[in-house]
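Pasting as-is:
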Amino acid sequence: MDRQTAPRLVLIGALALCAPGAFAQTLPSSSSVSPPPSVSLPSDATVAVPAAAIEPTTAPDTAVTADATSTPDTPASDAPTSEAPTSDAPTSAEADYDALYGADATSWVDPTLPEPASLPQVFDPWEPMNRRVHTFNNAVDRHVARPLAKMYMAVVPRPIRLGVGNFFSNLQQPLTAVNSLLQGKPKQAAQSLGRFTLNATLGLGGIFDPATAAKLPHHDEDFGQTLGTWGWKRSRYVEVPLFGPRTVRDLFGMAGDAPVALLRGVEEDKVRIFLQGLQLVNLRTQLLALDSMREGATDDYTLMRDAWLQRRTYQIFGDRQLEEDKTLPDYLRDDENPTVPMDAIPVTPMDGG
């Protein structure tokens, strides 16, 4: 071994121990270092050469790639970031929505439309008891009233059923006339009396309805509606056995209507009971169309209560529209057939019994 080769090997080994990455960087990926074949060391010479220096060494491709693309002199804080720039510009979906409906979400609403209907609040503190009575009434209706109504429709021809309905409707006109006067509606009271007289004479006791052909409108008023007009606007709901939905106000109304009801004046008990029973069957026949709606209801009690209260509220306050109300179209301003939307019905919360 010559004197120049030995120091070179020692220098290469020291560089490999101190900076193996730098040593790998100085070598190509395909280069290898091996002792010259002609070098022979004496037996008393000791040279420390690491194995990495004399074995084939191949630098990883990733290290070479990273070193080739990196800039060591640039601090990490100065490196460019990959964060997306923020912008307040709307997205394409938002731009399409604004083009259809405007920048304001409510700008497409027609400002000339009336306010949504405000339904009356339900006053039902006796609900647990009412539900039990409702279950009883449903059982009676399912086993007695509904079968009788279906049998009545199947046996009695439609013209006769229509005449029976006209007869009982005409019997209510004197009661309507009295309550119309109590409510301050003299014109409506006169129309009800004229309707009763014309149907009772030319209509053969009310079986026929010539009053409708004479353009006399049909009205339906009772003392419960009169109490509501006088100021008893809110009353607690109660379901009465065999009579169905009512309010406490309507129970007093039934007591007030009893002396004026014409059927109560029939002295023959058998005739009076027969007529009252026929009236109930006729009424149940008119309600058969609602059975399909009730069958799909989640809560039949709530459905019947809310529907009955809304209808009752309209019966009391529906024809009390103000003359200066300009929101209704002309076809709803007919004095003979007053109609108002539900939001025009005044419902004042009151603590009533």
